[in-house]
Specification:
Elements (H helix, E strand, L loop, with lengths): L1 H13 L5 E4 L2 E4 L15 H21 L4 E5 L5 H9 L3 E5 L3 H8 L10 H14 L3 E5 L10 E4 L14 H11 L7 E4 L7 H14 L8 E4 L18 E3 L4 H12 L6 E3 L3 H32 L3 H8 L21 H11 L6 H26 L8 E5 L15 H10 L3 E5 L5 H8 L15 E4 L11 H6 L3 E4 L11 E2 L1
Parallel strand pairs: 3-4, 3-6, 4-5, 6-7, 7-8, 9-10, 11-12, 11-13, 13-14, 14-15
Antiparallel strand pairs: 1-2
Helix pairs in contact: 1-2, 2-8, 3-5, 6-7, 9-11, 9-12, 12-13
Length: about 500
């Protein structure tokens, strides 16, 4: 009886009103917890410790959820800007970008990506002007980051010319954060990476430049971006997000932070590696599925049948997935598989399906160019100095995003044969295309100019009124990459 009494007194001490636990720079003062228990059930040390752990966990979770976020969003592109705007409506947010021109553009209330809710951005900025406690401001001055305690990294993660991951922007962002990092701060990465990248590549940089210890002095989270450029239906707040943290407590904080702005909630992954892998797998799966359809298109071309007819026929079966063939560009689908493959190869496994899918999709631009040239020869067109019109240069319809566009590859192939290529795109920035690809966009289509071939690369809404019939009657070969043009007017399509 004396033993039981001693243990009950010990357990009571765990629930005392002043019991505290330290978590970074958070001071956790508990409130008294009430539990119903049987004295006979706590006759050993392990059980007492279990009760203690449960009490402290409840206390910690409550206080951690009350953590007052002051947020910096690092990188104000297609992903970072919408995020900064939404958080800016509820929290104090600094939208940070090393590109001063980008910051100046946003301060004018403009956004060349067309992804921002300009009304929401104005609202969030006005909140800061009125209160100084919540709301959104923009900056390219890294010193201003010293006032925040939550960093969200949304910089690009491209590949180099050898298709290897280029972590330079990510590591530079981590270095910048490390120089301003304080005890108790949380760094959340959204940039697409391979599994383990946050802990193996980013954390050492944070530790080096901050002098702090991971999971003792500062913490990390990972929540992969799921922004779909140009999509005005599945916007940031409507997309279900994956969340994770470097400790269970931090995972709860990160999850609660994202849930505060999302309409459809979150999926909390068991750890950061799972969340990192999930993002890479999402886009790798799409890439492989599209590659199958692209390979089907290559086969159908040789057979002499229409790929879309085959897909429509096969699609009458209930479990057939009606993916379409096409050019695979953009920042995600054409890049993420290489990140997953890189990790696999570093562990001694050579991925077969993922890389074969990449090879097929990378071959489609050359196929389109070669097919167009063959059709021009069949129509007795001279190849050298032939005028070719390409409609669209962005990687998808009705958005200005030209990242990793494969349209340029078609143009390069045609130009190698001596064709004179005009590229027209009412959505794309001529300056961006010139800077990134060394290509000049034509500002408008000259109705008097004769074209030997027209390639419909992107199905922008503006092209619905294009007079394909007129050019067809004047002898132009029409290749429809997107299945966009009436069938009777095209010479070939994927």
């Amino acid at each position: 009886m004396h033993v039981i009494s001693r243990k009950m007194r010990f357990f009571h001490s765990l629930t005392a009103k002043k019991s505290q636990k330290k978590f970074g720079n958070f001071s956790l003062t508990s409130t008294k917890q009430k539990f119903h228990f049987d004295a006979d059930a706590i006759t050993n040390k392990n059980t007492i410790c279990a009760y203690k752990k449960k009490v402290l966990s409840l206390q910690a979770n409550k206080k951690l959820m009350e953590f007052e976020h002051k947020i910096a969003v690092i990188g104000l592109g297609y992903v970072g800007l919408p995020l900064a705007i939404e958080y800016g409506k509820k929290y104090r947010v600094i939208g940070f970008d090393v590109n001063k021109a980008r910051v100046e553009e946003l301060e004018r209330g403009e956004d060349h990506t067309l992804e921002a809710d300009l009304k929401g951005m104005k609202q969030a900025r006005q909140l800061y002007k009125n209160t100084k406690k919540i709301g959104l401001s923009f900056s390219s001055n890294a010193d201003e980051l010293k006032q925040v305690n939550t960093y969200i990294v949304t910089v690009p993660t491209p590949i180099d010319r050898f298709n290897n991951p280029d972590l330079t922007p990510l590591l530079k962002a981590s270095e910048t954060i490390g120089k301003t990092l304080n005890k108790g701060d949380i760094v959340i990465y959204e940039s697409t990476v391979y599994p383990g990248c946050t802990e193996e590549d980013c954390v050492p940089v944070l530790e080096k430049f901050s002098g702090l210890k991971f999971n003792k002095d500062f913490f990390c989270g990972y929540s992969p971006e799921r922004i779909n450029p140009g999509d005005k239906v599945n916007t940031l707040t409507k997309i279900k997000k994956i969340t994770s943290g470097s400790t269970p407590e931090v995972a709860d904080i990160v999850d609660a932070l994202y849930n505060s702005i999302l309409e459809n909630g979150t999926h909390k992954a068991p750890n950061m590696k799972v969340a990192e892998a999930a993002k890479a797998v999402e886009n790798s799966q799409r890439d492989v599925n599209i590659s199958f359809m692209n390979e089907l298109a290559l086969i159908c071309d040789r057979v002499g049948i229409d790929t879309n007819d085959v897909i429509e026929a096969a699609g009458t079966k209930w479990n057939f997935l009606k993916y379409k063939p096409g050019l695979v560009g953009g920042h995600c689908i054409s890049v993420d598989p290489y990140y997953l493959a890189h990790k696999a190869k570093s562990l001694g496994y050579e991925p077969q399906v993922i890389l074969s899918g990449r090879r097929v999709n990378n071959s489609i631009a050359k196929f389109i160019a070669d097919k167009t040239l063959k059709l021009m020869i069949q129509h007795d067109h001279k190849i050298k100095d032939a005028n070719v019109l390409m409609l669209g240069v962005t990687f998808k319809e009705n958005c200005p995003d030209c990242r990793n566009t494969k349209v340029v590859d078609i143009a390069n192939e045609l130009e190698e044969f001596g064709c004179k290529v005009d590229i027209y795109d009412p959505w794309a920035s001529a300056e961006v295309v010139r800077h990134e690809y060394n290509k000049e966009l034509i500002p408008d289509i000259d109705p008097q100019k004769q074209y030997a071939a027209i390639i419909v690369c992107v199905s922008h809404n503006q092209f619905q009124t294009f007079d394909f019939k007129k050019y067809k009657e004047n002898g132009a070969v029409i290749f429809d990459v997107k299945g966009f043009v009436p069938r009777e007017l095209v010479d070939a399509r994927l």
